Each structure stands twice: as C-alpha cells, then as structure tokens.
Amino acid sequence: MAARTTPKDVFLHLLAIVMLYVSVTSILTLLFQYVNELFPDVLTAEFSYRAGANLELIRTAAAALIIVFPVYLLVSWLLQRDRKQDPAKGDLPVRRWLLNLTLFLAALIIIVDLVTLMYHFLSGELTMRFLLKVVAVLLTAAAVFGYYLWELRQTASKSRVPQYSAIASGIVALLAVVAGFFIIGSPFYQRQLRFDNRRISDLATLQNQVVEFWINKDRLPSTVDELRNELQGYIPPRDPVTDQPYEYRSVSSLSFEFCAEFATEQTKEDANRTPYGGPYGEPQAELWAHGKGRACFTRTIDPEMYTQQRLYQKGVPAETVPL
C-alpha cells in the first residue's frame, strides 16, 4: 500500500534539498575563494576592492556552512528514520521528484564543467587556478550525483551508506571551514584586521584634510586639532581601540607624517586584499602597507598639482586660472 504524503513529508524533503543546495554552494564558494587566495590573478588582485571581496565571501560561506550543513544532516536523519518505520515512504512522489531534480542539476553541472574545461583546453588557457576550480566542481557534483542516484534506486532502508556518507561529507565540510582559519586567519585575527583597516581609513581621511588645509591656508596644520571644523561638521577621527588621537607632526613646509599603532602586519601583497579608500575612492592599499606595532607614513605635497585649486581658493577668476 502506498504511503500518503503529509505536509510534514513535503516540508522535510523541501528543507533537506534546499539545505543541500546551500551547503554545496557554500563549499564550492569556499574552495573557489581558497584557490583565489592561494593562486591570485594579477588581473583582479590589482583591484583591492575585488580582492577584499574574496575574504567577505569566505566569511559568508563559512557562516552559512556552519549553520546549514548540520540542519541538512538532521533533516536527512529524520527522513531516514521515517523510511525505516515506513518503507513505503521511499516512493513518495515529492521525494522522487526532488531526487530526480537533484540528479538533473548535478548532471547538468558536470556536463557544463567538462565543456568549460574542453573549451579552455582548446583555447590554450589552462592554468592551475582554473583547473583546481574545475576539479572542485566536478568532484562535488559527481559526489552528489552518485549518492542521490543510489538513494533513488534504494528500496531497503537498512544500508549504512547514508551514515558513511554523512561522516565523509561532515569531514569535508569541517575541513573546508577549518582551512579558512589558516588562509584568512581566526575570528580574533579578523577583528584585529578590521580595526587596522579602520585606522588606515582614518589616516587616509586625515591626509586629505591636511592637503585641503594647506590649499586653503598655505601652510600645514601644527596639530590634528587644527583640522577640526565644526561648521562643516568635521571632527578628526581617533584610534578605534584606545580612543586616542593619531600621531601627527609637520616635517617641513610641505611634508607631514602620521603614525598609528597596528595589531597586524600588512605587506604590499596583503594590503592589496583589503579595500582601503583613497581620496576619491581609488584603491591605495600599497601606500598604507605596515608592520605590526607602531608605523608611520610620511607624505609630501607637490604644489604644482594643486596650483589651480589654490588660485581658485584665493579668488582668482576662473578664466585666468592656468590649465
């Protein structure tokens, strides 16, 4: 006698499939971003906002995997338990539809993956970065296809394949998450890095204000407090941890220096992975590379670059301003 499909059956099967898709997407996202970090592409790494997005994707995918994958295992266990109690539930229409849909999508991904591989092979554009991503997609899709093909053909519910599959996939998911700690650092390190990014952003803003001050007053400020402008609503930022003002000193009539205490080290290569903001939003990561501890940045103003702005500030008519 065929089992009757209940709302519980529909919701559990839908939840299991959705959690499966999210888990697979999260694992592939992690693997892709790990490859991006280990094998950076010059065409994208030169733009810090793109490289910084890699770290954000890793955090998002890891967070999703940590929560979603255990839910998938729990729901799958509940479905297996129901099938043991009532083997006829293995033939529920909702189950067979969703399993066949999963097989279709997995087969489609495998085919597209192989076509993409062949295309790049014929184009002579194979790189280690590309090959690793192709292998990651192929193995993941093949594993999903193989397991659910077995699941669809399974009639008895006494096999231990689901338990072994759960253990194996759990290990893979755990390794995918743990690998992130070695590649992007622990949550504590990431918090320290965010504080350092905030410091760099503050120093970049202060730098712009110093240049603007020089343009308007033809001299450098003596202290950071001189940059305070209540009329325009500007208050010099302070260190986000100590709440102390950043160190500043005028080196010469055109040179000045900012110093700050950093919790992490950022080389030029590391800095390019972080979205620092420049005066007009341009990435300027390399200009702010620093070591761990106290670091100083000396800047020198080139008067010729600001000739037009200075003349304009002094009220010289626009038509007389030299180009």
Helix % is 55-70%
Beta-strand portion reads: 5-15%
Radius of gyration: 29 Å
Kindly state the number of beta strands: 3
Q: Helical region count?
A: 9
Instruction: Give the low-pLDDT segments.
Output: 45-51, 275-283
Outline the biggest β-sheet: 3 strands, antiparallel
Distance between the termini: 89 Å
Compressed to H and E, one letter per element, the order equals HHHHHHHEEHEH
Strand order of the largest sheet: 1-2-3
* Shape by Cα distribution: elongated
Mean pLDDT: 82
Description:
There is one protein chain. The chain folds into two domains: about 5-185, no CATH class; about 190-320, no CATH class. It is about 60% helix and about 5% strand. It contains nine helices and three strands, in the order H-H-H-H-H-H-H-E-E-H-E-H. The protein has helices at about 5-40, 40-45, 50-85, 95-125, 130-155, 160-185, 185-215, 270, 305-315, and strands at about 245-250, 255-260, 295-300. Strands 1-2-3 form a three-stranded antiparallel sheet, covered by helices on one side. Helix 1 packs antiparallel against helix 5. It is elongated, with a radius of gyration of 29 Å.
